Amino acid sequence: MKNIGFLSFGHWNPSPHSATRSASDVLLQSIDLAVAAEEVGADGAYFRVHHFAQQLASPFPLLAAVGARTSRIEIGTGVIDMRYENPLYMAEDAGAADLISGERLQLGISRGSPEQVIDGYRYFGYEPRPGQDHADLAREHTARFLEVIEGKGFAQPNPRPMFPNPPGLLRLEPHSPTLRQRIWWGAGTRATAEWTAEQGMNLMSSTLLTEDTGVPFHELQAEQIERFRKTWADAGHAWTPRVSVSRSIFPIVSDLDRAYFGREGRGSDQVGMIDGGIARFGKTYAGEPDRLIAELAADEAIAAADTLLLTIPNQLGVDYCAHVLETIVRDVAPALGWR
């Protein structure tokens, strides 16, 4: 069995060919797509976070709205760039969104992806300290965030407060008691996956890895997952972690599907450059359901993960994206034992 959700980058563009022509369009359609995904039997609605771009950027209002409109599916991010975040303010927002949804938040965080602007986090008021780089900044913010969502008091109460305080040091409110075990780190390398396990976070692995050993993408990603789970066991954490992978999968069951994605299935893994380093990108899967079933059965990383996030072309609109999700849940997942 696998949890199957969608991952939306939340693109919008004023082009007449786009179903999302404004920020308002993409926000409202994201909520509608989450509702539709729940109705067709999917398990999760996840959203990318990119600043200074015509994409989704402020996740917590959206997550709270999705949580209020749905009742079953997980809601999450993939991923929030921690270089930009105030850890305490984020803890309050995350706690509120999680409680509104009935504790269904699955919060993916990380160092983030290549930015639209140079060192964009500096515009948000954050600078690496002397001797740090931007990755250190993200991990420092993460450590503080993880600390405060544990719910332990740390703030000295005012002796003359506006309202009565409970005894002892105060924690941030609202507090969600189970959120700490639903934090995921987006890891782009095998070493980062091991670090993720040491910190006690779930592993979120996407359609690219920022390293290349010459083996197919799914094999390298499967090794990443294996190393994560071994390190987790060695660390002795008291709970079982989860692992997600992202894939672009498009069943071809209509002429419209064929027009959009009929040529995508001919592709393969790609090797490129990200931030000056080599990276390996996973292929797009596209074809008739029988073909997809055979190809996906050979994907070692999907087999190793418990959660599959399907990247969706949000600019094609809610109805088409819901159609893709429904076709995978109905025509592909059962044959692979995911349902």
Automatic annotation (TrEMBL):
GO CC entries: cytosol
Question: Which positions fall inside the Luciferase-like domain?
Answer: 9-255
Do you know which Pfam families this protein is assigned to? Bac_luciferase
Listed GO molecular functions? oxidoreductase activity, acting on paired donors, with incorporation or reduction of molecular oxygen
Q: Which PANTHER family match?
A: BLL6902 PROTEIN, LUCIFERASE-LIKE MONOOXYGENASE
Its recorded name reads LLM class flavin-dependent oxidoreductase
